[in-house]
Amino acid sequence: MIGEVTGIRRIRMLYLQLLYRCNFTCLHCFHGKRLQYSDAFTAGEAVRLLTLMRDEYGTESVTFLGGEPFVYRELALVVRHAKRELGQRVEICTNGYRIERRLTEIAPHLDLLRVSLEGVGSVNDGIRRRGSYQSALSSLCLARDLGVPTGVTMTVTSQNIGEVLPLASILGQLGVQQLKLHHLRPVGNAADHPGLMVADTAAYGRLREQLAESRLPLEVIVDGDLSEHGAPEVCAPSGGPREIDRIEADPRGALTMSCKAVGKDSHAFWYEKTANRIEYKPSAADEIAVPVPDVVYARV
Known about the structure:
twelve-stranded mixed sheet; single chain; 27% helix; TIM Barrel
């Protein structure tokens, strides 16, 4: 259905939000009140969607996220299926909070553990949860010892923009391979905390200069919207590409192609779980009708 409507024939990665439930209520979380929702994929539904995406769109990689994927009871089952049965590259994006037992269980089937951090020590804990910084570092160290490559995701805010370089240095010492920097989108909890937005956008330019001048021991990837000149003009999914990097499925089954549309109910496509098919449900404000540009990431 996606191909018939948009011309897109290949989607390289599926971002699969297994559930909304989370053990954190981060100040900037794009889910907001949805963290209280009970919607979730069953293991069977997740497996069927993974298989459908591989068979119809050549999807070769999956990132499991939530909510918090490590509170999903059948995580090991879907991870093993994605790796063993479908031969996919498997990533998990997690808060890294007390995940040691389950991480050890799934490590043989995991290609990347990506942990979310928002700074060093109390800066991170003030945004995420008390004790979350040390727990995240412990999880990164365990993954390293288990032979699982690691990365960190950070959402740049007014509270932590000065933490990027110190955090990158610490992560490099722990063997973390990549730090990915996101622009804060004012949706979900972030909409209730407008003070988190970076008011002086020139600070993004200074951050980029500092990153370029620093000899950091890991790769840094930066969201193109982290620019004093504003978001770059980028072709929207409806612009005619035959191949895109990603599509994101939320726990209800809504499918969103642009990072900038995630959390805004701007989806034009829907995965019908019981029927195991993708349906086109257009609206005047969906990401194709508007259209919504995607995010471009660049290595520093």
